[in-house]
Structures are given as structure tokens and as C-alpha cells.
Amino acid sequence: MKSVILPAIALLAAISLPLSAKAENPAHVKQLLETRACAGCNLAGANLKGAHLIGADLRDANLQGAVLVETNLEGADLTGANLKRADMTGAFATNAVLNNANLSGVNLTNARMINAETFGAILTDINIAGAQIYGSGIGVGGEQ
Q1: Where are the alpha helices (DSSP H) in the chain?
Q2: H-helix or E-strand containing 27?
Q3: Which of 2, 21, 84, 86 has its CA 20 to 30 A from that of 71?
Q4: Which distant-in-sequence residues (6+ apart) come within 8 Å of 62 by Cβ?
């Protein structure tokens, strides 16, 4: 009997782990899309592809692993936000504030970031292939 129960418990535990990995709060996603104000919100793993978040208040928001592909973040305030491993392919983040944000592992392929503030941001292992980045403190080989 024990030989059947233990594997069954292990299987259930393994199946439930991926389900809990998707951590965004649906109410927070709705709030952001309706009001563009979601400071401190849990948006980890959220699919915000193509969203118009112009001037959005995302201070201290958790956007870890979020899909921000082709999202318009012009003028958005992401001060202190966690964007670790977010996909920002083709995103538009001109005049965005990313001070003290965690951008480690972010994919900025083909993104446009002009005059975005990145003071104190964590910028390790970012992908900037084909990106247009000017006046933002992000560069290759120490150039900015």
C-alpha cells in the first residue's frame, strides 16, 4: 500500500508545482489595464503583450517573467520594479523611469528606449540585439 501512496503523492506534488508558478494576480492585471495605476502589484508572469501602458504607475511592481512584447511603456514609472527575465521584445519605453529596477535577464530585442532613466538599475545579462537605446545608461562594453 505504501509503495502506491508515496509515488502518487510525489506525482501530485510535481503536477501542482507548475500550477503555482504562474503568480500574477488577475485583479492586479485588470486594475493595470483599466487604470494604468498598479504600484506594488503582483504581475509576475502576466501576459501584457501589446498593452498600451503609457504613463503607467508600476512603481515597485513585480513583473518578473512578464510578457511585455510590443508593449507601449512610454513615460511609465517602473521605479524599483522587478522585471527579472521579462520579455520586452519590441517594447517602446521612451521616457520611462526604471531607476532601481531589476532588469537582469530582460530581453530587449528590437525594443526602443530613448531617454529612459536607469539610475541604480540592475542591468546584468540583458539582450539588446537590434534595440534602439539612446540616453538611457544602457550600453555595450561600458559605452552609454
Answers
A1: 2-21, 26-35
A2: helix 26-35
A3: 21
A4: 23, 41, 42, 43, 44, 81, 82
Residue 119 in grid coordinates:
539610475
- Collapsed DSSP state (helix, strand, coil) of residue 52: strand
In CATH, the number for domain 24-144 is 2.160.20.80
In angstroms, rounded to a whole number, what is the distance separating the alpha carbons of residues 19 and 15?
A: 7
> 89-142 pLDDT, tens per residue?
999 999 999 999 999 999 999 999 999 999 999 999 999 999 999 998 886 654
Q: Judge contact between 36 and 17, C-beta under 8 A.
A: no
pTM over 0.85: no
Distance CA 125, CA 48 (A): 22
